[in-house]
Amino acid sequence: MGVFSYRLIALTVVYFACLKVGQMLLQKLSGSDGEQIAIRHIMTSEVLNRTLQSWSNGSLEFSYEVTSARSSEAAQDSNFPDDTNRFSRPLLTFAATATILIMITGIAGNVLTIVALLKCPKVRNVAAAFIISLCVADCMFCVFVLPFNAIRFIEGTWSFGETLCTLVTFMQYGSVGVSLLCITMITINRYIMIAHYSSYSKVYKTTWIMLMIAVCWLFSYGFQIPTLLGVWGKFGYNHQLGTCSILPDDEGRSSKTAMFIIAFLIPCIIIVICYSRIFWVVHKSEKRMKNHSKSQCSIPNNLRSVDPAAPLSTGSSSSANNNSISYTASSSAVKMATRAAAVNSDNRDAKAKRNEWRITKMVLAIFLSFVMCYLPITISKIVDKNVSVPVLHIIGYIMLYLSACINPIIYVIMNKQYRQAYKTVLFCRASRLLGFTHAGSSVGD
């Protein structure tokens, strides 16, 4: 476990170093291009101003205009000025530290979940396929979004250029969409499992499961293509908020409202409806079982195989009675064995139903945590559009990032089978690193 942690930290350091080197190269390239643009602009301004000077003899005005041209061009050269100066340095340091910790935890937890679900047959079911897709989306968020935002907090501004600003925002909205749609698919799966069990095997075949997962990914990223192309809003740097986001295009159109309704509000409504139906079905089932138990208790136990109060005959009748008693005893044994088998079958069914119900409650916890993580940033952008309270926005961003690492924690807390799967993966890994056999690692379980 220790070696695994050290490797993860080393990879994180290397990853940030590569990002920093790439950033310096981009700045150098953009700086050289900016100097050429500035020279061309200044030469044009000088020609124009010399013409103006021939019309009026104000040399002071000429020098002022050239200076203004240079300063305005310098302002245009810098891609994104320091718009996060309203955030204090301790606040940005806290945000950067929290983002890095969330990134490391999210990558480790989601990768561990993927490996555990793939290696352990006990947790490999239909819901596991969607959970793996959810973990992949969260991993992509941690790898392709959080490092850039951490550096943004450290430097106080976005310094990676317009192209990366567009791509990172595209990845951010896409991975969030995949996460919520996967949660929706798992919820629908739980609803069909509990409320329409007879149709479950018809709906959830391998082909259909793969198609559902593909739809989640294609819709989440495909819905953003018009924005990526600048046809319906555009991705860019929001100077007011100091972050990359969706901006209105040249005609004032933006896809934010439609994206919120289609990719967030509608899935949330579907999830709420499904869980309302699930709890109603479970409530009716429990009520029916209680009534059945009461009716069973009210039936008198007057059916007996042998009457102990009956008189026993002598002579030839005793042999007949012996045969009757032996037959009755054998039939009673068969009945008891049948009843025991039925009880075992009922216990297995009850255990399976309890496990399914635990998974259902776990998915509900995942959905509630998702909503709770996204509420603060949504509220802060609605209530405080001018960023008058910077702390509110920083907390909103941290909660938003937290959604990418909180799911594995929920799996550990709420599901025993997932805990066992994690232990299997971790102890097997540790035993290989220490040179032990797989049999020796089972002692730790």
From TrEMBL:
CDD domains: 7tmA_GPR84-like. The keyword Phosphoprotein does not apply. One of its GO terms (cellular component) is plasma membrane. InterPro entries: GPCR_Rhodpsn, GPCR_Rhodpsn_7TM. Its main location: membrane. It is found in: Cell membrane. PROSITE patterns: G_PROTEIN_RECEP_F1_1, G_PROTEIN_RECEP_F1_2. Belongs to the G-protein coupled receptor 1 family. This is G-protein coupled receptors family 1 profile domain-containing protein. It comes from Anopheles darlingi (Mosquito).
